[in-house]
Structures are given as C-alpha cells and as structure tokens.
Amino acid sequence: MTARVIDGKAAATGVIERAKTAGAALAAKTGVRPGLAVVLVGEDAASQVYVANKGRTAEACGFHSVTHRLPTDTTEADLLAVIDQLNADPAIHGILQQLPLPRGLDANRVVGRIDPDKDVDGLTLVNAGRLASGMAGEAFVPCTPAGCMVLIRQVLGESLAGKSAVVVGRSNLVGKPMAQLLLLADATVTIAHSRTGDLARVCREADILVAAVGRPEMLGADCIKPGAVVIDVGINRIAAPERGEGKTRLVGDVDFAAASELASAITPVPGGVGPMTIAMLMANTVSAAYRAAGEAPPRF
Ligand SMILES: NC(=O)C1=CN([C@@H]2O[C@H](COP(=O)(O)OP(=O)(O)OC[C@H]3O[C@@H](n4cnc5c(N)ncnc54)[C@H](OP(=O)(O)O)[C@@H]3O)[C@@H](O)[C@H]2O)C=CC1
Ligand SMILES: Nc1nc(=O)c2c([nH]1)NC[C@@H]1CN(c3ccc(C(=O)N[C@@H](CCC(=O)O)C(=O)O)cc3)C=[N+]21
C-alpha cells in the first residue's frame, strides 16, 4: 500500500481563515482585536521554527502579536515577571511560553504562572484538568494534539470506537493531552515512552500511531501496522549536505519513506502537524479574545 499523504497545510488554511473572519467580526462588534504573546527563552530549534511561522500567521489574521525573546541565562524571577506583565496586559488574550525551557528553569512553575484564561497552549493545571475530566469543550486544549485530532478525524471520521491508538511520548504538551483526546473519541489508547519494552511491537498494534518523541526518523517499517494512520509530530532539524554545505532540513520522528509503504495515511514533515498547530493556536487566541470581551466563542 502507498499511503495517502495527509495535507496539514490545506486543513490549516481552512481553520486560519475561520479564525481571521471571527477575529475581524469581534473587532467590528466590540473593538477588541485578538492579541497573542509568545515567550521564547534560549535557542531551541523547533521553537525557532514555530515562532517564525506563528508570527507570520498571526499578522495575516490581523491579530496583535508580540514575541519576547529572552537569553538562555534568564533567571526564573525575570521570566515570571514577563509573564505577570502579560497577564496584566489587556491587549493580550493569549500567552504561549515556548518549551522546552533551558536547564534551571522550572516549566511547571513558569507555565503555572500563566492566567488560565490566557493559556492558549492548554498547559495550566486548570486547562489540563478540564481536559482530563472530559470537559474538553470548556478547556483550552493544547494546539498540537487538537490539530492532530482534526487530521485523524479527516481520515477516520468522528468516532474512533474499536480502534487502537498508540501515542509515543508522554509530555504534558503533546503525548498526554493527545492520549486524552483519543480516549474522548473512544479509541483504545496506549502511551509509550523511553522506558517501554519492545517499542516496535507496541507500535505495530496501532490503527492510529502518533509519534511525539523528538528523534529524527526513529520509527521505521517495523513500527507500522499495515493500513495504520500515522501522525508524525516530530520536528527535527538535521544536516542536509546534499543541499549544500551547512544546509539543514526538517524531518519527523517517523521514517516517512518506509512508513508510507505500509500505512493507509500519513502526515509529512514539513506540511503535516506543524501547520495545524499554528492554526489551532490562532483558533484558541480568537476564543480567548471572545471570552475576554464577554462574547460566546465561535466553534472551529
Ligand atoms: N509539529 C508540532 O507542531 C510540534 C512538534 N513538537 C515536536 O515533537 C517532539 C516531541 O515534543 P515534546 O513532547 O515536547 O518532547 P519531550 O522531549 O517533552 O518528550 C519526548 C517524549 O519522547 C519520549 N522518548 C524519548 N526517547 C524515546 C525513545 N527512544 N523511545 C520512546 N520514547 C522516547 C520521552 O520519554 P520519557 O518521558 O520516558 O523521557 C518523552 O515522553 C519534538 O520533536 C518537538 O519538537 C512539539 C510540539 C509541537
Ligand atoms: N509551549 C509550546 N507549545 C508548542 O506548541 C511548541 C513549543 N512550546 N515548543 C516547540 C514546539 C514545536 N512546535 C512547532 C509548531 C509548528 C511548526 C511548523 O510550523 N512547522 C512547519 C515548518 C515549515 C518550515 O518552516 O519549514 C511544518 O511542519 O510544515 C514547527 C514546530 C510547537 N511547539
């Protein structure tokens, strides 16, 4: 089988259009223009890609968009002060703290400082708890898993009853909320991680395989059940000497060429989950702005 390649860019364009229209409608009615702040500490490669793309998209949507770039040696007190200032800023409706943080900064403490009503990344205890309690409709759901669900539903429909799903990775940002969303859609969910024994065997059970590891092309043909839907979250920058000296390219956590021969559908990197993450961030930012203006947020 040669897998259908899932077009994350096309799916993202639709969501971004709706976010743009909804943002303009809110501004026309209430004068509130959606505002998004991103805080980046240090030099994480995947975060750099994200920050560049989200800035461009937020501007295309007509949002107010600011980026705080802080040096790797920023103290926790200084970082918390930036978050406090954004919490208090009425022009900002969404705050996104880029992860991972440099060593020495405690992600739980930093993320925990974000006002849950501005937590468009869905990482605070309030939003993570809502999701874990089955209240996804009232939560800000982390953008990447939310985007993955849109792509999975495009292929498999609303109900995943009877399907087995394996999520490789257990971060608060991707793996855990991904598993919660799959569970809410009635899939039978396994979460694998670095201490899983015989990872390939576990993965081969999956009708839906979501890879969120951060290791270039780690999952090969031995991890794919024939006919599986494969969602590759990984964003890894690797050397690409074939493109010239010092050049790099992005690859996922899945060996795309090998997996495509077995899967029924697969997301590419780039052009898969990444654009959907950005689109869901725009959607969450619009929702946060609607709530701040006392209006019912639109559905995406
Ligand atoms: N496309 C997009 O929009 C996004 C992409 N990303 C990318 O997705 C990847 C994962 O991100 P994130 O969840 O934040 O990363 P983390 O580093 O927080 O988590 C990685 C997870 O992978 C597991 N893992 C590491 N090595 C192995 C291994 N050899 N076998 C099995 N599991 C392993 C870890 O297990 P353990 O817990 O045991 O250590 C951990 O749970 C990164 O490449 C990141 O850049 C992230 C967010 C959005
Ligand atoms: N708190 C937090 N939330 C995140 O969601 C988060 C984060 N921290 N830290 C870093 C990772 C990484 N991430 C990406 C999102 C989109 C693209 C993206 O737009 N990718 C394009 C790349 C296109 C290109 O520039 O080549 C694509 O895959 O097609 C990449 C990476 C979000 N992350």
UniProtKB/TrEMBL annotation:
InterPro entries the UniProt entry points to: Aminoacid_DH-like_N_sf, NAD(P)-bd_dom_sf, THF_DH/CycHdrlase, THF_DH/CycHdrlase_cat_dom, THF_DH/CycHdrlase_CS, THF_DH/CycHdrlase_NAD-bd_dom
CDD domains in the cross-refs: NAD_bind_m-THF_DH_Cyclohyd
Catalysed transformations (reactions): (6R)-5,10-methenyltetrahydrofolate + H2O = (6R)-10-formyltetrahydrofolate + H(+); (6R)-5,10-methylene-5,6,7,8-tetrahydrofolate + NADP(+) = (6R)-5,10-methenyltetrahydrofolate + NADPH
KW Amino-acid biosynthesis (keyword) present: yes
Binding site for NADP(+): 169-171, 235
Keywords: Amino-acid biosynthesis, Histidine biosynthesis, Hydrolase, Methionine biosynthesis, Multifunctional enzyme, NADP, One-carbon metabolism, Oxidoreductase, Purine biosynthesis
EC numbers on record: 1.5.1.5, 3.5.4.9
Biological process terms in GO annotation: L-histidine biosynthetic process; methionine biosynthetic process; purine nucleotide biosynthetic process; tetrahydrofolate interconversion
Pfam family, one: THF_DHG_CYH_C
Stored SUPFAM superfamilies: Aminoacid dehydrogenase-like, N-terminal domain, NAD(P)-binding Rossmann-fold domains
GO cellular component: cytosol
Sample GO molecular function, one term: methenyltetrahydrofolate cyclohydrolase activity
Pathway(s) where this gene product acts: One-carbon metabolism; tetrahydrofolate interconversion
Record domain Tetrahydrofolate dehydrogenase/cyclohydrolase NAD(P)-binding: where: 142-291
Residue ranges annotated for the Tetrahydrofolate dehydrogenase/cyclohydrolase catalytic domain, each copy included: 6-121
Family matches, as HAMAP family: THF_DHG_CYH
Subunit structure: Homodimer.
Function summary: Catalyzes the oxidation of 5,10-methylenetetrahydrofolate to 5,10-methenyltetrahydrofolate and then the hydrolysis of 5,10-methenyltetrahydrofolate to 10-formyltetrahydrofolate.
Family that this chain belongs to: Belongs to the tetrahydrofolate dehydrogenase/cyclohydrolase family.
Protein name per UniProt: Bifunctional protein FolD
Organism from which the protein derives: Aureimonas pseudogalii
